[in-house]
Write a structure and sequence with these properties.
Distance between the termini: 53 Å
Number of helices: 8
Number of domains: 2
CATH superfamily of the largest domain: Spore Coat Polysaccharide Biosynthesis Protein SpsA, Chain A
Shape: globular
Structural class: alpha/beta
CATH architecture of the largest domain: Alpha-Beta Complex
Radius of gyration: 19 Å
Largest sheet: 7 strands, mixed
Order of helices and strands: EHEHEEHEEEEEEEEHEEHEHHH
Number of strands: 15
Length: about 280
């Protein structure tokens, strides 16, 4: 039994998705919940919480409306995976490592990613499959928002202080991580995503807000070399500063430069950051 929740801005796209789901989901009870955002302009965290409140079933799926499911009977597969009581959240793309520095989930070496998706970008599409061995599911610390399956939990909600349409995936991942629920990426379900994401001013603002709210991390599955991890923290910190300066958010950029200074007071990276400030 599954409640499929969609924050929808396009009736035709939603209709196409609904038809595709009906043909592919398999022999399970399910309901479609459309949160109409064509004119309401809800933040996605608010829209998804509305979906949770409307849901009849205890298994939830938040999915973008511009996707096509390719796996037959994927709903049955999802419910079998959720038979494991320890699993709280599941995606089809994610990471085994997340820095404390504000960053997207994919801002990490390829070896830490787990992905199974067909992604459209630059008028082409590409199958991405990486991060799995023999296992069907692999543990991660954060997942991508295109497909997020979770179990209904009175103590886990989307944080509505996060505005706009970004970082809701890290938000719900952090919530599950803090409550020690398993987060996994599965290779058993394949879908096609018809549009890429974009890192605009709204993204960097919500990313900063998210990391201020949770003040947590780093997160990782397994072990990692400490010098490699510190380098990743610094690299992501520099990327964050670049995005902040790009949109004129100098005060926030100074703050995160200070966090890099705490990590590594003496490094050539600081000259690079100084040049970024001067250039802006």
């Amino acid at each position: 039994m599954l409640s499929v929740i969609v924050c929808s801005v396009d009736k035709e796209a939603y209709s196409a998705l609904s038809e595709n789901i009906a043909l592919t989901i398999g022999d399970i009870q399910y309901e479609m919940i459309r949160i109409n955002n064509e004119t309401n302009n809800y933040n996605i965290t608010t829209a998804y919480n509305m979906g949770i409140d409307r849901a009849t079933f205890s298994n939830l799926l938040f999915v973008h409306e511009d996707v096509i499911f390719h796996t037959a009977r994927w709903g049955e597969i999802l419910l079998k995976i959720f038979a494991d009581e320890n699993i709280g959240l599941m995606g089809i793309a994610g990471t085994k490592i997340k820095t404390k520095m504000p960053s997207a989930w994919w801002d990490c070496p390829e070896a830490f990613k787990a992905i199974n998706i067909i992604q459209h970008k630059d008028q082409a599409k590409k199958r991405r499959f990486t991060g799995f061995n023999e296992e069907k599911e692999t543990d991660v610390v954060a997942i991508d928002g295109v497909f997020m399956a979770m179990k209904k939990n009175d103590f886990i909600r989307f944080n509505t202080k996060i505005k706009g349409y970004h970082n809701y995936d890290l938000n719900i991942s952090f919530e599950h991580f803090q409550k020690e629920k398993r987060i996994v990426v599965t290779k058993q379900i394949l879908l096609e995503h018809l549009s890429p994401g974009k890192l605009d001013e709204s993204w960097i603002r919500s990313s900063i807000k998210l990391h201020e709210l949770y003040n947590c991390g780093p997160h990782l599955v397994g072990e990692v070399n400490s010098s490699l991890f510190k380098k990743l923290e610094i690299d992501n910190g520099v990327k964050c500063i670049h995005h902040l300066l790009r949109f004129g958010l100098r005060r926030k950029a100074f703050y995160w430069w200070g966090q890099i200074l705490k990590l590594r007071p003496s490094t050539k990276t600081h000259w690079r950051i100084l040049k970024m400030f001067v250039a802006r």
